[in-house]
Write a structure and sequence with these properties.
Blueprint: H1 2-15, H2 27-34, E1 39-41, E2 49-55, E3 60-65
Antiparallel strand pairs: 1-3, 2-3
Length: 69
């Protein structure tokens, strides 16, 4: 019985996927992620953020923090 726990743990380690590795990298997505404090979001940006571009080929918004003047 103890071997099943070990096999299950090894199975999970061998077949886990790295987060985001299956997503194709679009040019607009990498540009958004390279900006400081920017992130991709489906739908509208949160209240203190503004849409500054697109991500995932135009399917999502690139949200950036609104700077106070």
């Amino acid at each position: 019985m103890k071997i099943l726990y070990l096999l299950f743990a090894v199975f999970l380690l061998l077949f886990q996927a790295t987060s985001g590795s299956a997503d194709p990298l679009f040019a607009d997505t990498t540009a958004c992620r390279s900006a400081q404090g920017s992130f991709c979001r489906a739908g509208a940006c949160p209240p203190t953020f503004a849409a500054t571009g697109t991500c995932h080929g135009g399917l999502m918004n690139c949200c950036s923090k609104i700077l106070a003047e």
